[in-house]
DNA sequence: AATGAATGAGGATTCATTCAT
DNA sequence: GATGAATGAATCCTCATTCAT
């Protein structure tokens, strides 16, 4: 697995701390914040609780993040970026366009597998994103931008390509996306948030999901 | 449209106030609470803001609802109940089992149409439910109970029936549900929450959704 | 036992309601108020709690008592009056001055016995008086007035008489009172408030108390 | 006067602040709380009033004491402890048992004198203790514990010793205590709480009190 | 960089009291 | 007389944030 691959998969918490030059305390703060906010929601989480869990003084948080909201943003923005990363990673592009996956089904498998691992490694972060997206225009803005500029075009190109290859139905891309997206996202949410404790046969589930999608949009 | 039908569709806010003997102020409080909580989330909503919007004194809220959480619960519980209502309404059962809808596709259409209208009339309520479900065990409990005791059995019976009729694939019911549910729910969320302002051709969307589902699970 | 005697002994709660023309609800309110205030103190007792315990609406209290404090006063004032009653009851005076009790010891016994029964029948009322005396100037005023005008003169006369009879030491009355009072009051407080649940041999305790007092001030 | 002696006498307010490492504001809070609670009672005292009198923000109170009740407890507990201190102080024990006071009267004088000074230096604290003892089980518990484990045994030993020495009557210790205690406590309450403003000849009063007690229980 | 005491605005909730019915 | 809905000031307490050390 290439370096790049890894970076789109493994836990962002670790990454955050590597990337920027963070003090150990700052990392503790981030970790504590993610844990608690994922559990109780941003508004219901107090900075003092974060400080306590992180083992730092209350003031320390504000040394690193001007406001509580800043802390939220600096948790949420990187996930958005990372979430979109594979869509314009060289590898992604190459594979799709250079026949590494000759058929759509293989591509779908690789894609779902990749996002599955990403979600698996970042459940609390994504829970936070999912919840707070609803309430914070800044986050919505960032998300929309990334989606419109990165994710949507990449998917568009990919779908067009496979349509040209004659492997999927000749529906408008938007329609295809509106069908596929809930199926994949719904699976991931069910798997990791609604029923995380159930014993899942992940491989089988992924394959069934692909079959369902292929029935819906495949030729 | 029968009386019964209506009761599963139209706005619950009205209904709440009709059912119980509420004072005008109490209704104002409920309406204001629903509006603001849907917009900002439960935790970020202050009782003083609710009071102001409702045009009552802050103390009045606590005369009707012992705590802020009580207010939330009394907003959320009825939606859960109402959401499940059609699944065990006589009409629902009759239609499904007495050949009113002879084929699954017709049934699906009627069902999605019905839930579509319900969601349309109760967006803020459902937004609140969706958000707060994540944080309040009491709500989770109520939801799980209604789902396991009412919704799930009804769907199960229906699917079994149509499988016997040979109209849908012979997959395990759970698998079918896991496929259909995100497709339908995903459509409704996209339609009413993610992109409520887009100009939608609802009839066309519903039909496409049905086609997609039928491709996935139909024979 | 004469009518008059009884009136200085039995529970004042009953009496209050007989005396004035009170509605049943008002009596309920008084009873509830006495119970709760004795238990938690005036300040910590809410009118709504009183209303609930009394089984009346919140507003009803204020129909009978202009303010919460009025309610306290109308509980406390009668006890003060009643507490002082025997000191100027005809019988008290007669007995002391007309040789019914020829010696001080007999008088003391009759006196302590009488006050013992009074306290026994009015514990909650007296608890309230004891507690609230400290904080409410109005109550202090009433108490001082009754004490200076009724109780103190009566005791004074009595002590002087028995001094003349040569049955008690020739100490200043004030000194005698300062010795006797805590002994008697201390006994009653210990008996009914500090250790009400202990098994007491009341007769023996009273006699010991008298002996102790007589040793201290008797000749 | 030895260091030890002093610690059983002088104002506890000072001591509290020396002992623990308190910030100046915390001391101010304690002082203000003691003043106001002694005057109006715990329940009738608001934290905002305490804050105002202490010259701090209301929030500051809760930084030092988790709840208002915590504040009360941390005022009241130390008095209980200090009140009992002399009973098991080395000096107390030594003097009693090693013939420093050969007779009971001298011992009584020293004892009353010592407690007299303690009360004099801690009137507000003791007022609070006296009032709130009635309503707070925690305080009652602490008090009972200290009394049963420290004060009562010490007094018991002392009385037994003096009985053996033949200086006091051969009554049960409990009886002796029930006589002496109200006499001494009653004197202190009259002196400092009931009539603090009267001009007292303290030395004379103490001697009279002793005489009274000795008549009652002395041989 | 880190602390933690201090703040004061704002939080939910309670309260005594009023008033239309 | 009695009700109970309504009030809004006041209650205890929490919060994000600041600042001197």
UniProtKB/TrEMBL annotation, chains A, B, C, D:
First and last residue of the signal peptide = none
What keywords are annotated for this sequence in UniProt? Answer: DNA-binding, Repressor
Give one Pfam family: TetR_N
Segments for region (Disordered): 1-20
Q: Which residues bind DNA?
A: 46-65
| Record domain HTH tetR-type: where | 23-83
Classify the source by domain of life. Answer: Bacteria
Could you tell me one molecular function GO term of this UniProt entry? DNA binding
Its protein name is TetR family transcriptional regulator
